[in-house]
Amino acid sequence: MNAEVSVVIPCYCCRETIGRAVDSVANQTQLPKQLILVDDGSPDEDNTFQMLNYLKDKYSKYFQIDVISLDENQGVSVARNTGWDMATEPYVAFLDADDSWHPKKIELQYQWMMKHKGCVLSGHRCGIWANSKESIEALSKDVTRIGKFSMMLKNPFSTPTVMLKSNIPFRFRVESLYAEDYLLWQQILYSGNKVVRIELELAYVHKGLYGDDGLSSHMWAMEKADILNYWILWRQSLIGLIAASCLTIYSFIKYIRRIIVVNFR
After folding, report:
1. Which H or E run includes 61?
2. Where exactly are the structural domains of the chain?
3. S-S: 105 plus which of 101, 121, 187, 237, CB 3.0-4.6 Å?
4. How many CB atoms are located within 10 Å of the residue 59 CB?
5. Cβ(24)–Cβ(100) below 8 Å
6. CA-CA distance, 110 to 5, in Å (whole number)?
7. pLDDT tens across 216-264, in order?
């Protein structure tokens, strides 16, 4: 039986990688009921949009596939929110067009959330595909509840690891180009909801992690986004003034350390 999960994949000029991502959804040991592919105004002469429709024809026998095309590029948050709003299932899982999932990702994560319905959001670990281990047979007992303090200090999840209840009154902040996912996890947790991390590597990136592929050039923008998040949370009365001030200082210290590591490693 298909899991009551809607999978949302934002797509932007991703003709070369989206097939791999969708394949990893179609190869799940427990399939989702819905897959939503959102073309975020890709300026590639409909190459991405045509590929999405090809994949819809290829896999529509496995689950419902909806292809949405935005008129112009509006950013990953708008694309994810658009897919989220189209979700028909009680749970939503996110995947990026250049990443992939372990075959047991939905089965293990969905079954855990069904057994723990008080949990609003769960994530898990993410690794590099070259180091992947596909021998995972069952969910280990290592499930960590994320506390408010640890969420303040570090983002515990990458977006392709997250499954959450679709009816929660939060969305990705569309004005943010960076750390919009981190802000969403913080808002969910600080509003009194249960958030956990499953200590299994059930998602993969297919390129280098933090600091590779020129990412260091965006580090200041990412740092500013982190700091802005704290003050958004303060304005929403989710954290106090002292906490926002201390976190701003702590975040800037981490930023200086990252700069040193990236430039002198």
Report:
1. none
2. 3-205, 215-264
3. 101
4. 16
5. yes
6. 8
7. 558 888 899 999 999 999 999 999 999 999 999 999 998 898 888 877 7
Contact predicate 248/226, CB 8 Å = no
Q: Which helix (H) or strand (E) holds 256?
A: helix 241-264
Q: What is the residue-wise DSSP string for 29-57?
A: SS-EEEEEEEE---TTTTHHHHHHHHHHH
Helix H or strand E segment including 70: none
- Distance CA(234)–CA(187), nearest Å, equals 11
Give me the amino acid identity at 255. Answer: Y
CB 52 within 8 A of CB 94: no
**Two tokens at 58?**
């290829």
CATH topology classification for 3-205: Spore Coat Polysaccharide Biosynthesis Protein SpsA; Chain A (3.90.550)
Alpha carbon dihedral 145, 142, 205, 265, in 10-degree steps, equals 80
140: buried, middle or exposed (CB in 10 Å: 19+, 13-18, 0-12)? exposed
The tokens describing 207, both together, are 């390129």
DSSP 146: P
The half-sphere exposure of 239 on its side-chain side, counting CA atoms within 13 A, is 25
Sole residue written with tokens 């430039």: 263
Tokens read off for 199 = 């200590």
**pLDDT mean over 210-218:** 52
What's this model's pTM, rounded to 2 decimal places? 0.91
DSSP single-letter state for residue 175: T
